[in-house]
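Supplementary notes for students who missed Thursday's class. We covered one full example, reproduced here. Read the sequence, then the structure, then the short commentary at the end.
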Amino acid sequence: MPGYGDSPLVETVATAEGRVAFLDHVLQELGMWRPVLVSPSMSGRFALPFLLARGDRLAGFVPIAPAGTKVYTAEQYRQVQTPTLILYGDHDTSLGSQALQSLRHLPKHRVAMVPDAGHACYLDKPEDFHWALLGFLHQLK
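Structure (token representation):
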């Protein structure tokens, strides 16, 4: 994502609207219509505004202890109709429970906690993570 890791900061993604436009452009360029968006940690700054603005373009959403959940209100989350699997590791002391508190307002959500895993639960317990993800994907229409 622009501005994270070793990538340079791009001014067009400095706002939530810019991040929505960026992600929308990426999906269009890839020819993806109604994908399932999997969003770990810092990618939440891109995925959450996209979910709120264009959730109808997604078949599903899988936030994994995403950053930026406190920026939005419970009422904003309640407007989203995208099926969501909220995933986090039970040893995540930073964003896991904080994100859950905000995201639990999404009306079509399920929660999966990965036991004995930290913030990067997909790295700590990849098999448990993938079973939870695959279970969610199989339930989507």
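Commentary. The CA atoms of residues 3 and 9 lie 4 Å apart. The two ends are 29 Å apart (CA to CA). If anything here is unclear, bring it to office hours.
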